[in-house]
Fold each of these.
Amino acid sequence: MNLVNKKGIVVRNIARAERQQLSRFASYGVATVHEAQGRCGLLDARVRPVQQNCSVAGSAVTVLVTPGDNWMFHVAVEQCQPGDVLLVAPTSDCHDGFFGDLLATSLQARGVVALVGDIGIRDSQTLRDMNFPVWSRAVYAQGTIKETLGSVNVPVICAGQLVNPGDIIVADDDGVVVVPLAQAAKADAAAQQRVALEETKRKRLAAGELGLDIYQMRPKLAEKGLRYIDSLEDLQNL
Amino acid sequence: MNLVNKKGIVVRNIARAERQQLSRFASYGVATVHEAQGRCGLLDARVRPVQQNCSVAGSAVTVLVTPGDNWMFHVAVEQCQPGDVLLVAPTSDCHDGFFGDLLATSLQARGVVALVGDIGIRDSQTLRDMNFPVWSRAVYAQGTIKETLGSVNVPVICAGQLVNPGDIIVADDDGVVVVPLAQAAKADAAAQQRVALEETKRKRLAAGELGLDIYQMRPKLAEKGLRYIDSLEDLQNL
Amino acid sequence: MNLVNKKGIVVRNIARAERQQLSRFASYGVATVHEAQGRCGLLDARVRPVQQNCSVAGSAVTVLVTPGDNWMFHVAVEQCQPGDVLLVAPTSDCHDGFFGDLLATSLQARGVVALVGDIGIRDSQTLRDMNFPVWSRAVYAQGTIKETLGSVNVPVICAGQLVNPGDIIVADDDGVVVVPLAQAAKADAAAQQRVALEETKRKRLAAGELGLDIYQMRPKLAEKGLRYIDSLEDLQNL
Amino acid sequence: MNLVNKKGIVVRNIARAERQQLSRFASYGVATVHEAQGRCGLLDARVRPVQQNCSVAGSAVTVLVTPGDNWMFHVAVEQCQPGDVLLVAPTSDCHDGFFGDLLATSLQARGVVALVGDIGIRDSQTLRDMNFPVWSRAVYAQGTIKETLGSVNVPVICAGQLVNPGDIIVADDDGVVVVPLAQAAKADAAAQQRVALEETKRKRLAAGELGLDIYQMRPKLAEKGLRYIDSLEDLQNL
Amino acid sequence: MNLVNKKGIVVRNIARAERQQLSRFASYGVATVHEAQGRCGLLDARVRPVQQNCSVAGSAVTVLVTPGDNWMFHVAVEQCQPGDVLLVAPTSDCHDGFFGDLLATSLQARGVVALVGDIGIRDSQTLRDMNFPVWSRAVYAQGTIKETLGSVNVPVICAGQLVNPGDIIVADDDGVVVVPLAQAAKADAAAQQRVALEETKRKRLAAGELGLDIYQMRPKLAEKGLRYIDSLEDLQNL
Amino acid sequence: MNLVNKKGIVVRNIARAERQQLSRFASYGVATVHEAQGRCGLLDARVRPVQQNCSVAGSAVTVLVTPGDNWMFHVAVEQCQPGDVLLVAPTSDCHDGFFGDLLATSLQARGVVALVGDIGIRDSQTLRDMNFPVWSRAVYAQGTIKETLGSVNVPVICAGQLVNPGDIIVADDDGVVVVPLAQAAKADAAAQQRVALEETKRKRLAAGELGLDIYQMRPKLAEKGLRYIDSLEDLQNL
């Protein structure tokens, strides 16, 4: 684990999840996947979608960049395959516009399905028009330079989470969650089960049943001491 | 007033506004209602709509929760009636995802018109698809637990405002304002009057009349010392 | 430059850019214009559009206001001409709702194309319905008073940038950039050239060529010491 | 409760706590008092001390101000008595420097023990030199005007808490907590008991006893499923 | 004014204020100077002192830097003279640690009296031990590189204010204010007068006189409609 | 790396650095250690010291906690040895007061040298009086509960950095840096060398030599195109 954020390296070959599994993760969505793997792996709430109504999942090609320098994006493009997500982490806080429509064109040409980064991006309108989805911490036109090495496909810390190259990135309107590749099968199964269970619950709730009864909460609430009173006036007299 | 944020209590019966009055408040919108009641009751600007182009008004069923714990939502659902707004206040800062589509299904089944909370929510895309409007401080998939008592229908402080159960909550794209139930009639009348007045002003302004003339501001501006000069060069010589 | 933020002044006559040039700047967009003038003039990332998919350019009528006081807006309207952008700077941090649909009606009647301000605004839904575009730091219903003088058409600092009256304001989904009037021709030419160049690059990138090759980055990367390795296992052995 | 933040009013007579009780609250400190009254009444964490190593308690003289306007401070001074704390709430977010050494001189002349406000203050160095303690959300030299009425001694919402005039304000390096006057006796007794209990615990802990044993946590931890393993290697094999 | 933030330039000769005038400004302090020049020139509240109880004034040697790059500091040192303040503005938001004890040693060797910047700094403890005062937006150990040109002694925007080289920078525990060199004499006189006036007021206030009377506020308050009532009970009946 | 933030686990035995090496790291300080290991491992700037003038280094006993729940602190105490630093990471953003003087007493009894956490703490004044140093993201009296399991001595992400149990934590007025145990020897040597080099540079700079000359920057600056001009007037004519 000492190799997190190691600079000056490009790793050429990484393991990736199967495309069908990625499709399933995209359909589960972030909240379900996050629950299914025990509430781990959620990126900080500051990373937000640039578009709406879009849910993706892909294999992480990680990019480590220095603040205000997007040189490594070009190095990363060459390492991308169809179904990948470019996952970008700066070594220090920066919301400059590292990424725009030209880089998106290049990624799209290689079949990359999204960009996720704890960075700023620009050309947001064009990106939406191109149907290239992006999750970022800011939309900001400030340009970047190409002077300093970072890395591609090393383990990185992005918005508070460790991401290894090849890990599964799931992103939708709720944010972004990372699923370690080695845990994908387990998370996949758990998510599938969760979706099925929720469907049942949803029907019962829609029919007017109460969660209090479905989840049998009343005894535990009583034991904790919850008191029901008739009116605010009674509250004064407690 | 000592009973604000009192924990472990559910108040069963609260006074509510009439449905027709609530409809009127929804049609006035937040900015107008806020003005009509003397610029009081506006929740902090951090509470923002999850959807766009939606204006609602309802009777507050208040929910006091502890950070990261959404147990009280289930208790609250049972207390809700058609036309209510669930108004959620945490006892300490927290933007976890307390609320999602299952709870929304349950609330919708009871006729609740919206959720407003100084909290995070999740399943944002599904909530929009369901047409269940939400105002929150964050969209974030982080789950919550069910371990600690809060309260339902006690007075709470939410995003900087005191809300009593039964108070009228008005929410639209501009944010959220609370109207104390006892002041509803007065605010209603004032808002109606304001809407009429604004209609007149809008027509005059659209026709090109100046606010300077409509509001007769020129004498007061002159008295305060406003100086008109011809060019920036003259500014150098002042 | 000592006259920045000078209070109590209205300057009646200011130089403005030609309408055709403004149209061109609107079509370039913020990111391109910002690059074209050497990465200067970008307002702070906190100033964000209230609407989506809108790009404008206009001549700045500057308004200096005191926190929570929108009196000067009415003075400013009279100084506006078709093609102008109202550019508002407070003398101290404030996100109250200085601006709403009535003022927008008045500006629209005079042909003003947008409002840009380091302030809060309200009536956001109505503003979108009116097709009057706004860039602001907050949407917040909090009202303002009319008690204190500011200025119209003096140089101001707005969201971290100096704006002189008559400067060109370009705004789109990426934010806002200011082009000093004296540099407009130069920035215009540079932007036009940049757009042409980008078109070429876009085609090559879309065809699958790599930026690494188009921009001939490989030698410089090698010189800086970038190392390609075959797998994460090799990383452990470096 | 509908009278919260009512403008244009000065209430001349308010109930106050006894000076000896105030002294006791100051000695307990904020964390203890907050616990003793069931974890209620804590002002938002943004309100911080301007000085260090100072603990005070006093009766709240509440001041409602409009953003950027400190006129009401002068009205409030006249209502103050020895042992009071001036508690200031703006009707909308503002961190301008409402308060400085001249007002502090005036308050000190009347025996006021501290200023607490969700506002900015200035002359911070002089305030420390004068030994006049202040808790604020910012230190900022920006001046304010005297144009708009607020109120003195009406109920206000300050940094997320309801404060009634005469409530007890306790402030130290940890922040600020408000004790409703009607609950003062109960909170006082609970705090005293808590202090005694903590003293015992502190001795046992200092002697090396573990909280795990003192609080008998081991069974509950085991029941929740806590697993002890010998090394990180074993973690891999779980 | 088109030359603000112009890159790649070092201006060798700038006008500076006299040392005696600088001493006077340091003794007035930030709040007084800010008032004396009509409440202009205050840097954003995010720029805070690293030390306490220190008040300085000096002539600005301006440094324009790119985010994460401190190369220009070394260029700037050579342009400094005794009595200068190094005033640093980044072209885009960055709180990396641009400045530490080695650069401070170099500046101290040339008689520079302080560093003020909208940047991060490091070695904060050593800087305090050296008695080299610093005002910054962050204390953060993150290092910077030396790759990109900025400028020395061009006009810059720093924390929301325009600063020309040679302008007077006044900094103390309340923050930082800039006085344009051309207005120094006027501001100096006004500040001196203000200090004298405040001394008189301070004595009267300390003796227990009320601001209400000293400033004759009672009639205006009455005219605005301020109502005095006897108790909170009366408030209910208004 | 899949075991980061794994819940419900206590690891009993971890490798630790030697006490003499820890002493050396404390003497180097954060900025130097951060540089010495290639600018890695710095915690986010939001984690700040509660005291001043204190530099420590220790072996990390990691604690994973859920928001608003400090139960795991008690479990962690038992795992601590003299020379350890308690390093606390929440699974989701929370600035409640997880830690106070009783827990500090317990840690001090076991020889723990400091607490570092991306959390809030309380009893700040007592902690300083006890000479128990703390680095945290907030000082806030809000209490926590003891309901949910976390972990002790598993790998965690804290304020943006991966920390393995036993890693070296260095903290001073500039913030906090983590040195992976396996890299400690290398970082130690590099830091020692850096300290020696800096001593030499410091003497030369103090004697008035310029960094421009010591680091031979002039040719590279010229090559990049830096232009020296005589005055601001010349700037106008460029």
Note: The mean pLDDT of chain B is 95.
Amino acid sequence: MSKLTVTGVTITPIAVQDPPLLNSVGVHQPYALRSIVEVHTDAGITGLSEAYGDDPTLANLHKAAAALPGLDAFDVNGLTRRVGVALGQVTPDSPTELVGAPSVAKTVASTVSAFEVALFDAQGKALGRRVCDLLGGAVRESVPFSGYLFYKWAGHPGEEPDEFGEALDPDGIVAQAKWLVDRYGFGSLKLKGGVFPPEQEIAAIHALRAAFPDHPLRLDPNANWTVDTSHYVAGALEGVLEYLEDPTPGIPGMAAVAARTGLPLATNMCVTSFDDVPAGIAQGAVQIILSDHHFWGGFRASQKLAGICETFGLGLSMHSNTHLGLSLAAMTHLAAAVPNLTYACDTHSPWQTEEIVEPGALSFVDGAMPVPDGPGLGVTLDRDALARLHGQYLGCGIRRRDDITPMRAVHPDWTGERPRF
Amino acid sequence: MSKLTVTGVTITPIAVQDPPLLNSVGVHQPYALRSIVEVHTDAGITGLSEAYGDDPTLANLHKAAAALPGLDAFDVNGLTRRVGVALGQVTPDSPTELVGAPSVAKTVASTVSAFEVALFDAQGKALGRRVCDLLGGAVRESVPFSGYLFYKWAGHPGEEPDEFGEALDPDGIVAQAKWLVDRYGFGSLKLKGGVFPPEQEIAAIHALRAAFPDHPLRLDPNANWTVDTSHYVAGALEGVLEYLEDPTPGIPGMAAVAARTGLPLATNMCVTSFDDVPAGIAQGAVQIILSDHHFWGGFRASQKLAGICETFGLGLSMHSNTHLGLSLAAMTHLAAAVPNLTYACDTHSPWQTEEIVEPGALSFVDGAMPVPDGPGLGVTLDRDALARLHGQYLGCGIRRRDDITPMRAVHPDWTGERPRF
């Protein structure tokens, strides 16, 4: 095989329309930011990936990109080293408040991830292999995802209602779930909670249970409850939920909740980097880790996390932020190659009406995503969409995720402070 | 790239001359057993590896080999699954008493390893890539090894003295160390202890320190000391040793030693599979794990272990049993690709006078092994040597490792029971 050496990188920020999904911090802005990373090689092969698109991420991606020409596309260790050096004394800045505290390690990890995924795509294209083959082989040819339910307004303030409709009570959530299950076949359901007082969200879960007697259910209030409230909700929903996600902030808080419930606790907020793992395990704070290659450091780092979960008897699933098809393809290849993926993965996909990859490669079948055929990630960048969504980025004025300000437009006293209940 | 599918496997047991090296269990037999694994593919490419050669291992290798035709050579997950099924309710049987308790998981892991290494060799040959490139990229182009010192008899009982000479006291050990350092350039030294009363071994370490003021020193009594004796030796050698290896049996015993010494403890006996890791970490039993791809489950499993060590702040080095060049090449590629290899690796290489790979690819330079050029492991099987060493296997009569019986020939009351001191 000829060498496969990085010659340059193109980073294109894009903005995609996003509905007014509610969470504990506030509400999604009208546009979500992503960046499309293209890593070019001397073989004429370009590897693709999708990353966060906020200003701090873009600055880090550009800093790191400048250090990549000359890198062997197989040299993941070299990538990590170069990114670490390039970012140097970077100021940690988390792309979203919903994935735990920012740190230098996480900033480096998310930057590494953006390029590592593209390198694997390039490797796969060069070898005529799927990314999942390069990650140890698919243990499943189709990856189960869960239907992701959100409380939402009918439309962004001052705008027409969107196609998804309002969902602000149990009936609305059940209707939303029916749409997701009918359309995509999801076999499990997750409600983004932490929006309304716990009683209302408990009622929504019971309504879902009545409407979907056999669907595993999850509830994620994004750390918007005190330990006491968490105990109350856990008691009310033990035997109903498959797991409870991030009820309360921090490892000690989660450990206090875990100590008094039989309900497994999951997290993508209190154990979000390898630095958090020892304390999380020692304190028994979580039973399931919701991994995310975007901020854990890429495919190999996610497999390292999977190995830790397997070794320590923790469950494993996958977290999602708003994303498009390049991320979905990456998540699917990774999930296909991780034997101990014990729960269906999260995805925001159904909420996105715009796409960056050409149609055909990614379609849910019975709530699961068949692994795209290779080579690489098995998806093709839609250049027209890229141009259009980049134009949308230039025009939309949004430069970092902010769920608080748009909520303040409706509730002037809103602070987004948690735990609120 | 064309497919790379396993078409068949050849397993050839060999016996190699081994000097009378002493340890806590007894003494090495005149021959050590290994097996050479050749995995054939439809591309005409054959992947190589070296494994244990005792009867139980061979039976498992053959059982698993029958399940491999049709396997994609990239599909490590599929290999693990097939081996697990093929071995089914295997009776656990450790190839040596010196690498911890046997278990089904370890039996499966060592069988997987034998084939996984060969699959990576085949992948590398197919892609024109070094194995270390496929493992994430070399973070070092030369892997440091330590000089492995043994108490030894002049020759096997009833035979002429061998070329290495006798070493039964501090002077003999220092002379041996000088030979190893002069000839190979090793920058650190490890004494296999647990042979003589601790005072004598402490004296040997002090003699080494006097002769080699700057060489990091290690002592490995293979769990032949009680906790009290371990405390005594640790106290005597704190500040002298780089680490103390497996002073006493079991995780609780090691934890009791660790609690009362500042000397880091290393192990290849009490934490030898992923099942041991949680207790080992929770009890603080060890500060350094001596990994070994042969029994941890291969390259990927060893990287998983490395990830755990990095995450939990444990040191990492590499254990060695008697081995030849195929294993040395595999160890070197793996060690080259593991960023957090924090100590020089062990190797028995200097004690082997016979070899299975063609000369030229493997030569220590300043105590370190340069990573062989690819493709694959970068070594070539010496077919004449294979035939000769297989003949030696057929003729030698040894079918599993047994350090006790040959010691009994000299000391009729010998039981090999530990801890003896």
Note: The mean pLDDT of chain A is 96.
